[in-house]
Design a protein that fits this description.
mainly alpha
Amino acid sequence: MSGSDLYLIAISCAGIALAIVMIVWARFHPFLALICAALAIGLAVGMPPPAVVASIEKGFGDILRGTGIVVALGLVLGTMLQVSGGAHALAAAALRCTGEARATWGGLFAAFVLGLPLFFETGVVLLLPIIAAGIAIGTDKGALRLKVMLSALAGLSVLHALLPPHPGPLIAVTALGAPLGRTMLLGAIAALPTALIAGPLLSRLTTRGVVLAETGIASAPVLGTTRALPALFVLLVPVLLIASGAFLKLDAGADASPLRLWLGMASDPVIALLIATLLATVLLFGGRATDAAIQKTIWTEAFSPAAGILLAIGAGGAMKQILIDAGLSNVFVKLAATGAIPAVLLAWLVAAAIRIATGSATVATVTTAGVMTGIASQHLADPSLLVLAIGSGSVIFSHVNDPGFWLVKAYLGTSTADTFKTWSVLETVISVVGLIAVLLLQAVVVA
């Protein structure tokens, strides 16, 4: 590794540390801290000032172009469920089925069922407000709410890392030529114990002493008494639409009939959430949908937190783009090309390093899959296991340069420090336990 590579790594670490200090110690808003850190990194590594500005703008815009609309619509849909009373009805019904003693297992199961066809961000904005609104009634329920939300997050994150047709694993499957069915089977075997450990079991430890310093975004007043059934229907609409899109992609060779084209459009997360939001207006509020007080409450409660959340997510994208454009991903490509480490472990290490540096699981997956295509055959590694190793490494230690960190923080209602203690630890445990599961599968498969 050259001196310039070491310098780039050092500057990147220093920039990330600067953002953490500004947020945790100086109490700057994440938007300002991340933009300042991205600017400092870009200039320190010698990028021309215009290129630094362009990189920040590109990263900010790219992340908000997709995730931003999903988050905004999810905030509106979640607020409608809360204001109508549907969220409370759903959570109460779920608790009656599981009981408080097993509520964390219920949260994990709900994440597996609802999150299988969803993007991670879509699952977060659909599922977490339901849990938060229904359980956080009274301060004595705060700890239970946090445990259930963390269990649900564990399920969503494990699916995002280990199971196609989620974008990350699917990218790696395509790049490495891994059999899709085999990868899904092995991924399911690895996902279940990983989610159980990182969710219901881990939450018993990480939530101790955590103070819900903020109200989160599930605090809208309840102005209705909607029953659980119509609320469940509204919640399932985007899930079913997005799932239909996944099936369409699996049958990509079929003729593009008008029905398939319309269904393909409706299965896009943005359009699916838009349809669900329009249906929610009618099904949850009925004739009161045009009531001025209800409309004002919905839009005020939905968009009051939106600015801070979206700005923090965009700034995380800016930091990610600076690190990529500075060439940090290329440094890890050089390390991977040496071939001194077993392929499965190497895939995990490279993905984990890129994830920590750039904050993006997708970037980590794409980059690592590209690296491993050139060396996988030399190591005679099972491509399905390489996909799972990359997926496990790509979710390790979410922190301030990860837009998802700020999204999750907003929904949990935790301080930045407690988000590290809960969410960042959860992601790291998923990554490490996922790697262990892959190594155990490798021993069985190879044997």
